[in-house]
User: Fold this.
Amino acid sequence: MLDNRIFSINGPIVKVKNTKDFSMMEMVHVGKNKIIGEVISVDEEYTTIQVYETTTGLSPGEFVYGAGMPLFATLGPGIMSNVFDGILRPLKDMEKISGSFIGIGSNIPSLNLNKLYNVSVEVSVNQHISPGEIYATCQETESIVHRCMLSPALEGGIVKKVASNGKYKVTDTIIEIEDKNKNLVEITLCQKWPVRKTRPVKKRCKISKPLITGQRIIDTMFPIAKGGTAAIPGGFGTGKTMTQHAIAKWCDADIIIYIGCGERGNEITQVLEEFSELIDPRTKKHLTDRTVLIANTSNMPVAAREASIYTGITIAEYYRDMGYHVAIMADSTSRWAEALRELSARLEEMPAEEGFPAYLPSRLSQFYERAGYVQTLSNKEGSITIIGAVSPQGSDFSEPVTQNTKRFVRCFWALDKALAYKRHYPAINWMESYSEYDEDLKEFYNENLGEDFLNMRNRFSNILAKERDLLEIVKLIGIDVLPDEEQLIIEIAKIIRIGFLQQNAFHKYDCYVTLEKQKCIMKTILYLFDKTLDLIRKEVPFTILKDNGIFSKLCKIKYEIDNENLERFDEYIKEIDKFFKEQADNISLH
Amino acid sequence: MSVIRHVGLKTINGPIIVLDNIKNASFDELVKIHVENGTTRQGKIVQIDGERVVVQVFEGTQNLSLENTKIHFTGKPLEIPLSTEMLGRVFNGSGKAIDGLEDIFADTYRDINGSAINPISRSYPRNFIQTGISSIDSLTTLIRGQKLPIFSEAGLPHNKLAVQIVKHAQISGNAGGDNNFCIVFAAMGVKNDVADYFKTKFEESGALNRVVMFLNLSNDPIIERILTPRCALTAAEYLAFEKGMHVLVILTDMTSYAEAVREFSSSKGEIPGRKGYPGYLYSDLAQIYERAGIVKYSKGSVTQIPILTMPNGDITNPVPDLTGYITEGQIVLSKELNKNGIYPPVAILPSLSRLMKDGIGQGFTRHDHKDLASQLFASYAKVHEIRALASVIGEEELSKTDKAYINFGKLFELKFLNQKDYENRSIEQTLNLGWSLLALLPKEELDRIDAKLIEDFYGKVKVI
Assistant:
């Protein structure tokens, strides 16, 4: 093994000549700094390695050492509320070693090896333990209990020895098991798992529960299910990151994995700062307690960007296997695709569309297929929801990454530059977006919010669709020429847009809205619509009805009533009733 | 590492030379090339294949011959000398002094590629920089440590605007009494006149001894153009993070820079992506822009204002497009406003500052700033819709409210956007001006503003 030396270097790609020592996808250490790399192709002449750090200063003739296993992640207590780079090195520890700027070749363990965890052992001697079964638990953060499972890579066996409950480090042996060949295997609190391999589950379940995000346009109009997949495509400045932050903050997943893939350094800082201040509305604990950040900013090595997506989803699967509902925010998958393109070009592979490699669609689908609602090996329910941002080149949705992503996700929240220019946030275009989870979630909505919820939602969609058609006409002839009924539709659609679809992420009542409040707003708006329509049909001129102030009041109802005081919506209903009763009385007078 | 000398080249192709039989070269290493006529050039290793080495020559390959060219491997990447003496000096794109004075006495040497700031070592930028320009201060606020590019076109006054920002930012930067503000100016592929313009303007404002200039003019070698922003930012990082200064970096013109990257890529025979630019343009630009910021353990900051000219005014061109994905917002200049005599011609709707939301409001500017800005955006967007309608049905046919919008739009451009290049408006003045314009609209139209603020400000501020 010692004779493997670097032959050629081209950016992050290093080749070794005439060797048969390496296997495909094997993890390697390159050069005197032992920087981490991965074997990405092997042929008779060359073994090609992609390197996860800068290759500046590397020379041919330096050694390459194989690790004997594929690129893996070390999984165990200590991951939660931490910040890692693309290959799971903790950034806080890197800061201690190399200061504010990232140095080269820092081989730092992913987990804190010195920290003691209060472990309670969940198995007893002579019991059989199978892969995926939980043998110990410990409180990892205030809101997360870490459940250590027998690695699915092992075979299972008879527990021969257990440690007593107490404080242990992640590398301490907790139990010993005897496998079927009568070998004793020591099991610690952590395990290794190759990041590119999907972790096994007992079975995939039907999707039936929504991931509640507290964002009206998502929960009501285009809902996403737990275990589902969604894409947020949008040009720069349309609010992809803002939308992802809002979902990460308020959604009802147990755990959030936030992958900052090729994005801005300051955004990671922002997440760190904001999340440490915010309190989860459900658990009343800090948001950081349930969040893992993976940061490969746009100026960090490109090969690690490619790996960061896999690192993130592997962590997600690990926590899912403990029985948690995990949501992944991948911002942005386009940068990941571009990393693939860059590496592919360095390998001189035949390009397909726009220089992207031909395997782009298959890689994308492999990633999104790791989402799902499952029954785990330990018979718990868990799920992974993937929400991927897409940054289309030139805001053109016909480019390959957007188009291919669209094929593999079932929720599409199209961000619209025109809306963003008007500062209509979230700038999700209601005509272009869709969710295929409607049917799967129907039962949930009907049971929990009543059957009228979906009816009202559909009425909203209809009004918005009609508005779009009407606006085409208005553009040509002006609004005053339209019949009153159609003017009403435009006016109500305006309330829906401003009072419902627009949501202020910085307002204390509006940043997070419960489904019940969403329903109340819908109901109030439609109530006004029905009442007005009623009078218009009795030939009361719309101009009189419009000037009553209620229309502009409903636009602000979202800021007036908080999630806890929904009975206050009755005041608005009463006010509407009062006004329309007066109008109706007027008619009968005449 | 040992220093190697070598005689003779294998091939020369554009800015690239290939050498054979080289042992112990390292990737990204700096090489010195001694030409027959006695001059010396610099280059760096961009690819190694066994004993074959590919070198890009910074100053171009004219006059190089296959024989009689001596190559000297230095064993380290390109580093430039740094010290506070750099202030007031002029350098070329690879960091050599070109103002006729002696080389600077180096305090330290740094690799021009820099290294990435660890995201957790950053502190989130929150300090508002007052530029004295209403459109920028109120609607696309510049924050210390931000990277906020100006998207412009040939023929628009982006240089004038940049100078104005520098002049006023300098004033507010020095308001605290500590004289620790400086400017790093990098010109890439700009005309001699433009470089001169900046120089004269810096001189006029008395700032020249606080400016470090890196000049790569449009007739200078393109490889050096690729190094120019890297040298400039290395100097900026040194001044900011080691000397605790607030550094404002102006990079102009990023489009020329990207074209240099493209030219170099095609001479290396790489697979082209969109519009011929290489697939790694995003990562390449990011390595420049991401060098802005504030680091926790240092007092200083690096704020970037890159200027780029959009070819044919096309914002979807790869250079503005990729830039917009990396930078924290953009200030877009509009040809139309410029034609109407509005200066600075900032196109409000596509312009954006991402860091603004955390750097304005109570404690930073004024508590009504957020709502006011949001309302101005929304109302001005509406103006555009109504103008489109008016062009079809005629202004006479518009409703009363719509006419109010047309009036608002006109005055907004004339009084708010438009200002003299010496006019330094305080944020207070700017916000009051905004309120007095909103008073032209009926109260019910202000759907972005909190009722309390409307009560306090609507119709109560008179400036116009």
About this structure: The longest helix of chain B spans residues 369-393. Residues 80-358 of chain B form a domain with the Rossmann fold fold (CATH 3.40.50.12240). Chain B has a mean pLDDT of 90.
